[in-house]
Amino acid sequence: MASRPQLRQLGLSTGKKARLHRILFQHGVGNGTAMFLPYDQGLEHGPRDFFANPAAGDPAYIVKLALRGGFNGIAVQVGLAEKFYWDYAGEVPLVLKLNGRTEIPAADNPLSPLNADVADAVRLGADAVGYTMYVGSPAQEADFAQFRQVREDAHRYGLPLIVWAYPRGSAVDAKGGKDSFYAVDYAARTATELGADIVKVNFPHPELRKGARAEYDADISPAQAIDAVVRSAARTYVLVSGGEKAGDAAMLDKARMAMDAGALGLIFGRNVWQRPWDEALALVDQLKVILAKYPAP
Amino acid sequence: MASRPQLRQLGLSTGKKARLHRILFQHGVGNGTAMFLPYDQGLEHGPRDFFANPAAGDPAYIVKLALRGGFNGIAVQVGLAEKFYWDYAGEVPLVLKLNGRTEIPAADNPLSPLNADVADAVRLGADAVGYTMYVGSPAQEADFAQFRQVREDAHRYGLPLIVWAYPRGSAVDAKGGKDSFYAVDYAARTATELGADIVKVNFPHPELRKGARAEYDADISPAQAIDAVVRSAARTYVLVSGGEKAGDAAMLDKARMAMDAGALGLIFGRNVWQRPWDEALALVDQLKVILAKYPAP
Amino acid sequence: MASRPQLRQLGLSTGKKARLHRILFQHGVGNGTAMFLPYDQGLEHGPRDFFANPAAGDPAYIVKLALRGGFNGIAVQVGLAEKFYWDYAGEVPLVLKLNGRTEIPAADNPLSPLNADVADAVRLGADAVGYTMYVGSPAQEADFAQFRQVREDAHRYGLPLIVWAYPRGSAVDAKGGKDSFYAVDYAARTATELGADIVKVNFPHPELRKGARAEYDADISPAQAIDAVVRSAARTYVLVSGGEKAGDAAMLDKARMAMDAGALGLIFGRNVWQRPWDEALALVDQLKVILAKYPAP
Amino acid sequence: MASRPQLRQLGLSTGKKARLHRILFQHGVGNGTAMFLPYDQGLEHGPRDFFANPAAGDPAYIVKLALRGGFNGIAVQVGLAEKFYWDYAGEVPLVLKLNGRTEIPAADNPLSPLNADVADAVRLGADAVGYTMYVGSPAQEADFAQFRQVREDAHRYGLPLIVWAYPRGSAVDAKGGKDSFYAVDYAARTATELGADIVKVNFPHPELRKGARAEYDADISPAQAIDAVVRSAARTYVLVSGGEKAGDAAMLDKARMAMDAGALGLIFGRNVWQRPWDEALALVDQLKVILAKYPAP
Amino acid sequence: MASRPQLRQLGLSTGKKARLHRILFQHGVGNGTAMFLPYDQGLEHGPRDFFANPAAGDPAYIVKLALRGGFNGIAVQVGLAEKFYWDYAGEVPLVLKLNGRTEIPAADNPLSPLNADVADAVRLGADAVGYTMYVGSPAQEADFAQFRQVREDAHRYGLPLIVWAYPRGSAVDAKGGKDSFYAVDYAARTATELGADIVKVNFPHPELRKGARAEYDADISPAQAIDAVVRSAARTYVLVSGGEKAGDAAMLDKARMAMDAGALGLIFGRNVWQRPWDEALALVDQLKVILAKYPAP
């Protein structure tokens, strides 16, 4: 089991350390863990994600939910940040999600184009920026080039950089798929080698290994898998994402295993806001009970 | 039924608010609604669109029509703005349409290239800029990148940004087509997430759902469809376009349903200028009677 | 029959108006008409175009011909402008042709790359710049993007912008071809919408309409066709090109019909310099007799 | 047998000479030879390279190994440099590896995208930068263009530029493969012609010549092959890489032949850190004994 | 027979004239003719070109040969210029070859990427720059765009620009090939239209005309062919290249015909340095005897 590194061990610049400190110790549980509310599914999947709970289609509802639920931050695209963050600016940290795409066109060579830059984030008072990297995509060259600019800008302005490290593409599919241990492990490492401060990964599924490389064709437990992923991320904080809506027990299990492995925290969207208001807050409360058990070392 | 948000609720910068106020309250009906006259079909479709009413091929005729009809603005490409807006500069607001293409080459991966930038709009005294986004096109990455620059420039200069949100591409065709509720709804959401101030959509046709995703395979009325689209646009004003020339009753019905749903107004081109001068003005008068019933809240 | 607009009606900036005035009233016939000598065929077609009259392969011969024939300008690529315009700099206006290509590689997606920019034209004392736009090419997006930069630079420096509007590509071929009324009409409109000051078109052939759109499948005369093209060009001056070498009577007929329709003038290259010196000047004299009958209004 | 050129014979700028002097004479054996520890395999191959010795997955372990082993430098990607070099900054030279890719997507047209620039290297106190060039790749044009920018920046900042010259692509495979004498020889020459200060090559295998050009279809010994490669590199220092993990005797043989041929030194990664700590240091000691026999002339 | 133009007739800027004067009248035969030594074959063909005379693989040998042979200049890539020109800087003019490629990947759409820019040439004290243009390549658009930047930079810094005008591509192969009169003639014209100061061509082979255009399907002599090429180059000085190694008599014949036609001189590489030192100098002496007979007019 890896232990979570301290902020002072990460080689961070002053601006990044200041903002991460604010996010991790002045919001949420306040003990150095994190729970983020992502809300860019209206772009990524379209309004259909709001049909289960139509109120969630209104960004004003979501900002209020983030505030009331005591999240460490809300992640949205620039259009929503401009129109809706104003209402509660400063009351909950903003993570400006810089890139994003619709799911409409075929994604054989996926690349998530930039819709905003780090300067937009600074202008809007964001405390961090988010970037989706499709690790393994045939468009890797363009993705890395785009990311490099974001990394340099985030360094210049002192904004922490959260990478949504998503394995994608036919080469990934052929070796166990995007949720396989192989894919998630490699994605986490890629993010840290290229300069992420925080990496968001899906919880790895070690049973997915059809076609996997020999090295990854071994029986390990989910706990061992997330532990290895956190170690591969080496001094890059790890957030485990919720993915599609699932049952409460499964969610809480994932959360506990991730925190045991040394993760920083959670980033749960649809699993939160597709539930009715009260149910969402109830789940959040349970998650916060878990996070409270993992204070910063 | 959604209600139209107030200008002060949109998180607008001073320059954008000033210009939108001028467009919405000092022109047209003057009650915060809008009716625009688009005139870029000579580029998009070629001169054939003028054969029904040859006088309309002369941009000078169109500018006069916009003025006499009391439109809130006229939308043209830079070449016509430079040669014809001078005559009546300041008397009717100018929306500089920044991108556009001819229909000649195949449009498998449609992208509407920039023919002018926001600085051109400022130089010409325009009060807003227009941008066509082909939501769902395989060229989405280039489209979003191009749009980002336009959004940033519009922010810098304080010009309101109107997005022509047009679903396009084989993936759209396979799920109900460009006028399906699915496609129009997703396009409206995309525009607001990426930073449009106003979005122009076609009136959605909920009966078009062959191949649609399960979530969109439901019986709803046109009124329900436009209502959902306006809600998806969340704090981005909605303009309903006229599309190809149709009968008066159909036009007026569309207009009423859109305004009931909380739309900002209408953008009718061929339905206006392909009619003879007097008939065009008569239709415009009827539309203004409708708009007058929906003052800003 | 359209009448030619006055210089003061075009919304021109001071610099463009000054230079156009110089070209139109201080050179050639001097009555506001124009006759240009294009000489970029050595690049576009190679030296074979000079085999009919080898002397014409020497640019020094051509500059002298332009001077002696009393042309309103000579259009060449930057290499020839640098090496040969010096001799007679200021004695005949220079139109710097900014883009051009060889005919060697297949032209399925034609785009004419820039070989010089507007700043080169300013440096060389040119009075106008020329740009070839392949209207209808699958490379339309790149073409429009490239043109936009040229248009902006021409605006910044106050140089009139002449667009060689050439319909091209398989979609054009399938609807009557590059000389059809449909194609020439659309090309002229495209140039004016995108910001040309002057557009060069081939004389339209209304009999070419195999596969044409229904709207263009009508019996009209060549005179009606050129009249419609000039109207579509709306406040963009029209130059009719000579194309491949043809007989004198045909040339003079074209010239008269174009001027009757409101064209600005002519741009004849191979029809002039592929003839021996004396024959070339004789044809030019006949063309000037025609132009003299169409003074500026 | 070529002799290794002196630093003063290379036409180096002051900054490059200063940093190379520091690397070659103030670290490692200190006699002008070099032994580098490359550690970007976590990106290039993924975490699987660490399975043989899990401790090696932690960059902190590697930096310590470089220090304790007395290497002349450690080569890592920017993310690891930012998070882990801080601990021992200045104690062992840093080579910032500027480009890199994952092995996941197919590499038919390989290009290694830039993940950092020379300015990042300066900011981090690096003493050199590294660049992977895929000589022979169909993406050669983009590779050379990218390299040119790196070379110019390295010149501007005075940082020595180490080129990982890797033959790649189907045309290489068809002529003997990436380790053939033909391929390695051409790659070394390409690096020197384009401006490398140091070139890293795989040890050439002269027996690989199936499909080779006639000129290269000759029986020569490995010693002759590496000698020719060093001569082709003409005043660009040569580092021989270890490649995949192999036996000690083979490693030491390679090292001796390379140094005999006039190479600068060695760059061994997996052959070092995939062994347990003590075994790794034992191998390093043996290599240093060899290097000690080849002081700068 | 064309006569060679004087330096003062070329419309050159002061800087270009100064440097060309230095090259043409202060080096080589000193009578306004030129003989250049190109040495970028190590990149273009790889080290195999040195197998005939291994000493020639060492750039130091070549620089000495250029000096001893009394060449008007040596043309190398930036890497060799940095490492080897220093020794004799100023003693023989340097032509920095700006672009180049390896022959390894297939060249269906050849483009020679830039490996250095004109500023590098200025920094290294070069007196001219060289650029390879693949006339007729499907990559023509990118080639012309790249060349434009080089031309503008060469103008800004006042460096003469030598174009290696190489016909390439399947369309060239289908009309007689890269050495046909058609191809060489068109290539020479393209270089002059686009702004070359000097153009390097292969000696045209008028017998190669299988598939040639009708205009080029005629019986002419080699002397007539080179004469036509020099005329097509109109005020752009012509250098005839040696190509692959051939016999002395053939070389001298080519040289005489070229000079008779008005060429500036010769650019012979492999024909010189693939011979042993003494034989190379003997051939050079014979070539200089020829050049001495063609002083500047």
TrEMBL record, chains A, B, C, D, E:
<protein>
    <submittedName>
        <fullName>Class I fructose-bisphosphate aldolase</fullName>
        <ecNumber>4.1.2.13</ecNumber>
    </submittedName>
</protein>
<dbReference type="InterPro" id="IPR050456">
    <property type="entry name" value="DeoC/FbaB_aldolase"/>
</dbReference>
<dbReference type="InterPro" id="IPR041720">
    <property type="entry name" value="FbaB-like"/>
</dbReference>
<feature type="active site" description="Schiff-base intermediate with dihydroxyacetone-P">
    <location>
        <position position="200"/>
    </location>
</feature>
<feature type="active site" description="Proton donor">
    <location>
        <position position="166"/>
    </location>
</feature>
<keyword id="KW-0456">Lyase</keyword>
<dbReference type="InterPro" id="IPR013785">
    <property type="entry name" value="Aldolase_TIM"/>
</dbReference>
<dbReference type="InterPro" id="IPR002915">
    <property type="entry name" value="DeoC/FbaB/LacD_aldolase"/>
</dbReference>
<dbReference type="GO" id="GO:0004332">
    <property type="term" value="F:fructose-bisphosphate aldolase activity"/>
</dbReference>
<dbReference type="Pfam" id="PF01791">
    <property type="entry name" value="DeoC"/>
</dbReference>
